[in-house]
Amino acid sequence: MDYETHLSRIATTLFEAMAKNLDLNLETSKSYLSVDTGMVRVYRYPRGSVGWGMEVHTDSSILSILNQDDQVSGLEVLKDDRWLIVKPISNTLIVNLGDMMQAISNDRYKSVSHRVKVSKNNDRISICYFVFPGEDVVIESSKYKPFTYNEFSAQVQQDKKALGYKVGLARFSQKQDC
Ligand SMILES: O=C(O)CCC(=O)C(=O)O
Ligand SMILES: [Fe+2]
User: Which of 33, 127, 135, 143 would be a feasible disulfide site paired with 67, CB 3.0-4.6 Å?
Assistant: First the structure.
């Protein structure tokens, strides 16, 4: 089996466990995670560059599974307003929840803000797997207006172009109109 197939199996198992924990309807939740959308991206962060390898963001995915460099650190996650360095551990995967999981869970699970620092002395490699809902599957929750991943990603592109940054889920909030 190839890497992506293994990762899609892990993502499905994790998602089903979370859906069960959230008491989501089995059929509805099954339609949310689309393993066909899974994609693998490999990053190389060259050593010594100034600034961030990747600026602060949340992923738009349901789940992101990272296989980060087992020697060179760089990944930082925001927890309780503090940045934590995710230490490299060999043979260990890191699971980040994305915006779609936050919406599906009606904010009970939060997408994690994270960023990547460039190492002074070493290049850093990470292999990242992302999985999304099917493009036209409507995500329903009480905190957000019903939306599809297609609509979400179009809005993200539009905001990045017009404002220079991603507004994200706040755009779809039931409460505020921004
Ligand atoms: O390279 C990493 O460890 C993280 C990459 C990342 O956050 C992303 O691609 O969204
Ligand atoms: Fe990310």
Answer: 127
